[in-house]
């Protein structure tokens, strides 16, 4: 699309004002012509930020529910103007995807396939579904002789549930899945690439909005306000924590990072989930670095800028110190140094700066369990 100087997209935002101890409403104008923005205090009718170029702000960051960083001011996007909605989010919708029990080394490939085909992942976690959940998932074939076999299969191991957002997401996800029988699926579809047979056909997709809403509630919902319907898989034993940072999520690197971990031969992922972290939570999580790393404040801001993916990771060899061994796979904090010394490390491949260095990994052996608990106990029930 070709833009002129005055073309803009308009978003309604909220920002916490620490001095006044209140939430203030703001209007964010984004000008794609020169990647500039303007922030206006809606109540006072004054510019908080005059139109200025901001190279770090990208159009793909401007999604409702995202947090954007405008000169260290964190703005939560709550809505957008009708004209912006019509242009950017026309026919956008959510769908539910379930990755069935498959070898762990396929998880990364499947997630990369999803993001490369234009879907945005807004919720994700691994888990095991119950027989009741499986029956709800396949209620459209109730009475079929295949139903008991399918239910046994999808409840036999770990699955990954995802909420995908995109234009005509329900129909498009089913099209990219391919035919139920992988042998009949069109070339390039997910099932043609990785499916084995009609039963082991990689993933599931919903057909209606009602099915999507029901499955999202079943997989990501809570009972009695705080008990997840599908429990998180963290064990909190002999583990380390890895957090895939917001910039890596936005850049579509989650699948590649997962694949690098699971195909290393040294580690397996026992729990994964996508989180939105507040600035205060990010600062608390990184508190061990306060006064130690000059990037502490910027690290905290970045972790709160968008969605991240937290992982509990264990070593394949129980004799290994998991925290120390996994840190080697990640590489040093500085991606430039990584590229010189450890070019195949995660940070060398997917990091760009000391703050945008792809992943956080536990540094101190005694902190592995506590960092996993921070996400899968504290934030998961927040």
Automatic annotation (TrEMBL):
GO terms for biological process: CTP biosynthetic process; GTP biosynthetic process; UTP biosynthetic process. Gene3D superfamilies: Nucleoside diphosphate kinase-like domain. Keywords: Cell projection, Cytoplasm, Cytoskeleton. One of its GO terms (molecular function) is nucleoside diphosphate kinase activity. One of its GO terms (cellular component) is axonemal microtubule. Belongs to the NDK family. This is SFRICE_002656.
